[in-house]
Structure prediction request, 908 residues.
Amino acid sequence: MATPLKIGIIGAGSAGFSLGLVKDVCLTENLAGSLISFMDVDGERLDMVHRLAARYADEVGADLRFETTQDRQDAIRDADFVINTAYIKGHYHARAMRDITAKYGYFYGGVSSGGAETYQFMLDVCADISRLSPKAWLIQTQNPVFGGTTLMTRETDVNVVGLCHGHYGVYEIANVLGLTDTEDITWQAPGLNHNIWLTHFYYKGEDAYPLLEKWIAEEGENYWRTHVAERTHDTQMSRGTIHQYRMFGLMPIGDTPRQGGWWWYHTDMETKRRWFGEPFGGPDTPTAREFYVKGNEERLAEIKRVAEDTKESVAQHFGTEKTREQHLMIIEGLVNNVEQYVRVNVPNNGALPGIPDNVAVEVPAIVNVKGIQPLRVPPLPEKIMYECILPEWLEMERSLLAFKTRDRSMLLYNVLQNHQTRSYDDACAALEEVLSTSGNEDANAFWQYPAELV
Amino acid sequence: MATPLKIGIIGAGSAGFSLGLVKDVCLTENLAGSLISFMDVDGERLDMVHRLAARYADEVGADLRFETTQDRQDAIRDADFVINTAYIKGHYHARAMRDITAKYGYFYGGVSSGGAETYQFMLDVCADISRLSPKAWLIQTQNPVFGGTTLMTRETDVNVVGLCHGHYGVYEIANVLGLTDTEDITWQAPGLNHNIWLTHFYYKGEDAYPLLEKWIAEEGENYWRTHVAERTHDTQMSRGTIHQYRMFGLMPIGDTPRQGGWWWYHTDMETKRRWFGEPFGGPDTPTAREFYVKGNEERLAEIKRVAEDTKESVAQHFGTEKTREQHLMIIEGLVNNVEQYVRVNVPNNGALPGIPDNVAVEVPAIVNVKGIQPLRVPPLPEKIMYECILPEWLEMERSLLAFKTRDRSMLLYNVLQNHQTRSYDDACAALEEVLSTSGNEDANAFWQYPAELV
Prediction:
């Protein structure tokens, strides 16, 4: 008989993860007898997810207990696993920031208030775990997974594994190529989170890159001219992604094409559409964000409606297939020895050559009762290391160093690095305006110049 | 009695180095009986430097033999030292390139034809040395010293040491602060060539950074408002240099302020003057370049005139003080055990923490008959590593990888990285126009796209 667990879910009301997590939890028989502790600052969403989970569990016959709390420490106390999916400031705040920076000529962002709240939140969660459930595993999906996993594993003794679902982009490639049975596809895409590269891509045991080349030659132009995305993130086969394949030599997977050459693909809506397709131009546009936020709201409304409508079956409505998210794979592997092949973000320790040991890399791993065992992968091509991976490593290190030193000039450095910054004076003004905006009071106090600039 | 040597000087007619080298050679008594082989592709300049050297040696009573050759291998054959000061394409070609890129909105450059000729030239010199004088030391002052020293020490067995005089910028600081006796100043400024940082700065045994702080507070603004540079490179105490000291935490020395935050200090003439002073705005401006090239021409004309005017004493005209250049220090140290404390560019091998062993660093070294012995220096501050040093390391690695793979898309990547690039299409067009310009035929053939872009 399986050991009952306590799983604490931070940010349990998140639109992106809550439904899937509830389903996966309820559909995992090995969790029988376990306690799921939903934590969110939003009481209404908490009620929603609780109701959904209770009804879903009831319908599928899952032997689970649920509790809700707005106190993070309640969810963490004595937990075996803590899942952190929190999103600190919300999409509306991000939009307000973008409106400010637009005045200075930035398209959709460009000036960050530093992200100290998020890094601090991660350390606070770890501090709670160290005190209240020191043997727990923290499953981190809150972004930035790259910097956050690196930070937490450097600064605390908590067991942390970072998860992302971007790597499933490889199945979008397969789908467009007509390779519909995912069982026939084997692949590897190591790197840093949101910066992963398809080093191996096999279909029925044979290299499938030639199929991609054939598609580019014979169908690419037509696809790019006629394809209309239904999802904002439907960019895996866009012109911009293939262009990056051409520029860097391997296919960038999932969120990777959003990072590569940030500025030249992303200067304005027209350019974004050229590279990432109609109608959204990829996920990082006003059009896409509006659609995405609206979609989230509709999804939350749907969950709420169905959860409350006792005449409808929630299991029937949302289905009884597990998602492809890896949270429960990690748990079942570690606890129940259900061995799994997963993609995780963990301190490198030699798994990916050329990256320091104490930097989180995204690599394949075997997970079972012996632990999460990252596989050593071959080196990425030097070109990708020097043009894509190592520059982002430095950017991440700068973000951690800035957080540690509270150095406002490192924020200014970031603004100055932005290719849309028009001048030094503009950079200073934009940064000060962002930091003095309502909602950024803590950030404004946090970041200090070590010496007065001249 | 000292052992006679053969010293081959490649690019012996260079305006920047020839006079100083001739003086230093003639004023070094330990070279008695040695042969100096001047090599240059320009026969007229060769005659000039030969005449100058013969007369100078005669006047100061130096026991030296001189020969001239337009064949590099003659200069290298059986040499004990080879000094490479060659400049491959000349200032006029650089100006032509800049005129082209100006059309695309770049101020003063922005699109490189890749520098393959220079790297290839360095390897060719090394191949000659390996064959004709395998025990020789190559003293490399031809730029890029950073990438070149790294390349040659990785790819060949030749003994290479890279030299630069930028570190003497520390005496310009001292001079402006009124610390006139250089004997009282001790300092250290390690890093990468053209990217070095004043970690130690003592005057009469006491930390002199507080004197700098006092100057900034009490005299800085007045200096920046009123100082008029007489040399194009007179930027060590400019507002831009002090601004970088504020941004990064240590004083950048010599050519370093030209690198740091390239684009935001360097967008146009007005901005350059703001940061690097009147009238030139630092060395990388049309005004400065014109002045500099004119100065070089005048200097060459002066050398030529004096060398030919047998009624005038060349030694009296040019003085009998050695320069501060380190070429002869290296030679006397290695051959005659005249121990010297020098600043050299050599493969790191642990001298500067956080840089791979096979990357050339600029560090202090002791030179004597036992060899050139780099001193281990403390780590640079993390902020400087992540914001200044490591990004330039990556840039250098990209330049070497591009050279090795002949990958045109890496040149395009560089153009796209330029902050003044207005769009992707502009970047492509500017690159193609530069590569198809007269004088760049070899580069245009050298650089190939590995796959057609989409």
Remarks:
- Residues 166-284 of chain B form one domain.
- The interface with chain A takes residues 216, 220, 239, 242-243, 246-247, 249, 261, 264-265, 267, 271, 382-383, 386-387, 390-391, 394, 397-398, 401, 405, 407, 409-410, 412-413, 416, 419, 421, 423-424, 427, 450-454 of chain B (CB under 8 Å).
- Chain B has a mean pLDDT of 95.
- The radius of gyration of chain B is 22 Å.
